[in-house]
Amino acid sequence: MSVILVFLVVVIGFSFWWLSHQRLMSKPWLETGAALPATDVPEMPAAKVALGIFLAVVGSLFALFASAYFMRMEYADWQAPPLPPVLWFNTVVLVLASIALSCAVRAAREDRMDLTRLGLAAAGLSSVVFLIGQLAAWRALSAAGHFIDVNAANGFFYLITGMHGLHILGGLIALARVSALAWRETYSSARVRLGIDLCAMYWHFLLFVWLCLFILLAGWAGDLVAICRQFLA
User: Fold this and answer.
1) For residues 57-85, b (16+ Cβ closer than 10 Å) or e, as one string?
2) DSSP run (H or E) holding 83
3) Which of 1, 78, 176, 191 is at a distance of 20 to 30 A from 30, taking alpha carbons?
4) Residue 105 CB coordination number (10 Å)
5) Are 212 and 63 in contact (CB under 8 A)?
6) Residues 92, 98, 104, CA angle at the centre, nearest 5°?
7) Which fold has domain 2-232?
8) In this structure, how many other beta carbons lie within 10 angstroms of the beta carbon of residue 133?
């Protein structure tokens, strides 16, 4: 139960930090002295608000997975599979994808479309490599006899990493659409920038989720929770 609380607190804290930087709660009509807020250009596009709500739901889902993982591991038959070494490589690749999208966001805001397209391509390629690496991790576990039906811990490993991989795959579809728009000669700069912002936001969140899952699967979550308890005590 402590794990899910810690995870939710972090997600909520990150959400409030992000919303504060997006000026969602600001009152521009008070800041500028105008009678009414300008409605032609909203402070935050509705797509960002919708994505933020979606990510909050996804974060809660993975938090429930983490909580169920901790409760199930208390049983005597729990035997966690060894962590495939390829997961370290996959983590680095996903970090690179997130960095590439951050670079694409900055380049798009500066109307440097060549760098924007390069960042999008690098992010997409890195994400595909990440998914291939996850499949390699599954294959390595299966080759070592750690099948999904052998132990509950194996089932959790395949379930958690599979769910995260599906979210990456869904993000790749959106990234492909944004990339296709960016590669057109006649494109809407505002539309491209918004799409890249949404993809970057999505990838940063999935990177955060993956780092939490990596800590969980590596068996370090218990130590992390103990440290948090000591810090809060």
Assistant:
1) ebbeebbebbbebbeebeeeeeebbeebe
2) none
3) 191
4) 18
5) no
6) 135
7) Four Helix Bundle (Hemerythrin (Met), subunit A) (1.20.120)
8) 21
Which residues fall within 8 angstroms of residue 194, CB to CB, at 6 or more apart?
A: 45, 47, 48
Exposure of 188 by Cβ count < 10 A (0-12 exposed, 13-18 middle, 19+ buried)?
exposed
Half-sphere exposure (Cβ direction) of 156: Cα atoms closer than 13 Å: 25
pLDDT tens across the length of the chain (233 residues): 455 555 555 555 555 555 555 444 444 444 444 444 444 444 568 888 899 899 999 998 999 998 899 888 888 889 889 999 999 999 999 999 999 999 999 999 988 989 999 999 999 999 999 999 999 999 999 999 999 888 899 999 999 999 999 999 999 999 999 999 998 855 667 888 999 999 999 999 999 999 999 998 988 766 665 665 666 56
Which residues have C-beta within 8 Å of that of residue 69, sequence separation ≥ 6?
Answer: 156, 160, 216
Question: In whole angstroms, what is the distance from residue 174 CA to residue 177 CA?
Answer: 5
| Residue 198: count of CB within 10 angstroms of its CB | 19
Token pair, residue 162, equals 């599979």
pTM score of the predicted model: 0.81
Pick from 26, 44, 47, 14: which is nearest to 205 by CA?
A: 14
Do the beta carbons of residue 44 and residue 25 sit within 8 Å?
no
Instruction: Put residue 37 in one of left, alpha, beta given phi > 0 → left and psi -120 to 50 → alpha.
Output: beta
